[in-house]
Amino acid sequence: YTDKVLSLLSVDGGTLLVPATAVADDQLDELVEQLSRAARVPITATLVPAAPQQIPDAADQAHELLDIVHRLRLVRGLFRFDELALEYQLTRPGPGRDHLGSLLDPLDAHTELLETLQSHISNNLNRQRTARMLHVHTNTVDYRLKRIGQLTGFDPTQPSGLWYLRSALVARTYQAG
């Protein structure tokens, strides 16, 4: 199928247009893994299906999704639009995004708390992985999560609090530009 794929590549990355008939949707994750192994670098990719006349808009949307993945420090691999639809919507300018981003204002004076929250979410709420990444004890992660809840009013150990805090992180990454 490589003769059917159009690509625009550079040392920093690139864009591939893969016809839907060339690779089945359930094989795309494996394709990204194969490309990663062949290139000997971890690859992060986004997928936006499009009809031929929609390709320019879909390419722009795919790059916006990739920006979201990078800003949120998500794990490597293939991300489809439906997996990032909420994050995509939260990045759109407006009063909702501004309000959500401001929920983290109490953490501005505590950079270690903001970093802990970001790392904890990036590590799928795994305290041990978060502690290793931050080079701290798991009790320190627990303390910081509790402190985040006290300062923001949203408990990151509860689903509703975590939902708001994660949404606030997404929104805030786009407030500054």
What does this structure look like?
With 177 residues, the chain is mostly helical. It is built from 8 helices and 4 strands; from the N terminus they run ββαβαβαααααα. Helix 2 crosses helix 3 (81-90), helix 4 (95-102) crosses helix 8 and helix 5 (111-122) crosses helix 6. The longest helix has 17 residues, at 55-71.
Summary keywords:
two-stranded antiparallel ribbon, mainly alpha, Arc Repressor Mutant, subunit A, single chain, 177 residues
Q: Biggest sheet, open or closed, and with what strands and sense? A: 2 strands, antiparallel
Model regions low in confidence, pLDDT < 50 over at least 5 residues = none
Helix content: 55-70%
Q: How many strands appear in the DSSP assignment?
A: 4
Summed over residues and divided by their number, the pLDDT gives a mean of 88
Q: How many discrete domains?
A: 2
Rg of Cα set: 19 Å
Strand content: 5-15%
Spatial gap, N to C terminus: 38 Å
Order of helices and strands: EEHEHEHHHHHH
Number of helices: 8
So what's the overall shape?
globular
Strand order of the largest sheet: 1-2
